[in-house]
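Tokens help. Our protein:
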Amino acid sequence: MGRIVTAFATIFVLLGAGSVPAHAQEFDTDRPGFDYSNFDLERPDYRLCERTCNDDHRCRAWAYVKPGIQWSPSAPAKCWLKNTVPQAIAANCCISGKKEAQSELPSSAPDLEDLGDLRDLGTLD
């Protein structure tokens, strides 16, 4: 019986690992300072900035600046990646976020077939 519980707990953890969000969005918030990279976005979508931070091991926080805010009214949306988590301030120009604690588990779940047959555990005969 214990092996069944262990098997199902393992499946639950592996399948759930990829669904935990890596960031929490902070609308109308800026996190100024500690920038190590910035770039124009191809379209005004804060999730592009969030995703870039998520994919970069150096990134601890990010700030998305809405189009038309920095430098000129025709300026594109901009992403600022941070190597630490600066203090948050209220600012309607921006959407920011920070990485939450992440586990050592893989970011995508394996195929259930890779886990083997429960009969191999001696639980189903």
Notes: The longest helix spans residues 2-16. Confidence is low (pLDDT under 50) at residues 4-22, 102-119.
